[in-house]
Amino acid sequence: MTRFGIEEEFLFLDEHSLVPVALAAGTRERITRLRTGGEVTKEYLTSQIECLTEPVSTGADAEAQLRHLRELIEWHAQEQQAIAASSGTPFATTRSSAVSPSPHYDVVAEQLGRLTHDHEVNGLHVHVEVLDDEERVRALGRVRGWLPVLLALTGNSPFVEGRDTSFASWRSILIRRLPGSWSPPHFRDLTDYRSGVQRLIDLRAIADAASLSWAVRISERYPTVEVRVFDAQLTPEESVLAALLSRAIVLTDDQPPAAIGADVIDASLWTAARRGMDARVIDPTTGEIDDARTVAERMQAVIAPALRELGDEEWVHDGLARLRTDGTGATRQRRSVEQNGTAGLARLLRAGTPAPTRLPVRLDPIRTGNDRSPRPRPQPDHRRPGVHRRE
Question: Cα separation of 160 and 92, whole Å?
């Protein structure tokens, strides 16, 4: 069965003001020494941390790892009166977050300049294993048309500076400022893809291929297609739903084709970021415009055979039904603030990362940001060395 991996990013927020706070000295090291499934690493800012699953084959395995990792980081967040928030952006900010020590992050910070000061964003990244080089490019083409509706389903960043942005995904708007962001172009083959990436490097728009901010890209370190359009999700179930949808789209190689340019997909991504499930977006099967709910239903129908074969049909059906009933993360964040103010939002964010009753005790050598956990790869017992990059 095709494997996948999930990366979730979190911001440590003060439990009262909900502004980002740096992890206390030693906290990151203590977390990364606890190894009982998945891994925790540092992220771009000192107020951020990232959780990564091992390669998994089922939604149940992915959810179990995500729950464990969330409980682990929330335990340490509570030690410093903070919440490990799985939200695309913080509710408010003091713009005081520092860049985590790392040679690669130093390069990124120099490139971003002033943008770093308000680049407090959390994403959900899904790696889907595709072993053939050229098939990864074809899979990239299949995913790009569905990016707007995937964003509409997962917008979870409605606030900035303590105010409602009127957007479902403000994180997406912040990401848009970066070169090589939102929809990639259509690529004919791997050579075409590599040439397109190299042009951005030659322009010095990005430092290297691992700095691409496209909403879907080919991983530089693993044989995977990496779907990056999603905001960080409030619950593990929602993260797994995004992952299962991604896997099914990647594997559905008989989708009705529609030639759609990056400009149209980007315009649809903007409307999805603005209005969430109330947006009108592109339908990649027809090239026509329709409301996001209808396109989501069409997407579910197109990938139904893959979902059925993978045993994911019920999970996806139930997950989409919950979204229709409860609303997306952005909707629920707004509802919490409207009903109970920031205290209500704090409870909502904390509910997604409940602390365990006790911590695991098995320790491995300390991991640093230069030692990433594996994403899906052909050899499950072989770790590939690599440099920590912003992915």
Answer: 6
Nearest to 47 by CA among 6, 89, 1, 106: 89
End-to-end alpha carbon distance in the chain: 25
Q: How many CB atoms lie within 10 A of CB 4?
A: 27
Q: pTM score > 0.85 for this model?
A: yes
Distances in Å between the alpha carbon of 288 and those of 139, 217, 254, 270, 365?
21, 24, 19, 16, 53
pLDDT band at 359 (very low <50, low <70, confident <90, very high): low
Polymer length of the chain: 391
Q: Give the E-state strand segments of 110-180 in sequence order.
A: 123-129, 159-160, 163-164
Lowest mean pLDDT, pick from 162-176, 210-224, 354-368? 354-368
Question: Around 151, how many Cα atoms within 13 Å sit in the side-chain half-sphere?
Answer: 38
Please give the helix or strand (H or E) that residue 329 lies within, else none.
Answer: helix 329-351
pLDDT digits (tens, 9 = 90+) for 120-143: 899 999 999 999 999 999 999 999
> 199: exposed, middle or buried (C-beta count within 10 Å: 0-12, 13-18, 19+)?
exposed
Phi/psi for 84 (5° steps) reads -85, 95
Nearest to 231 by CA among 123, 336, 82, 153: 123
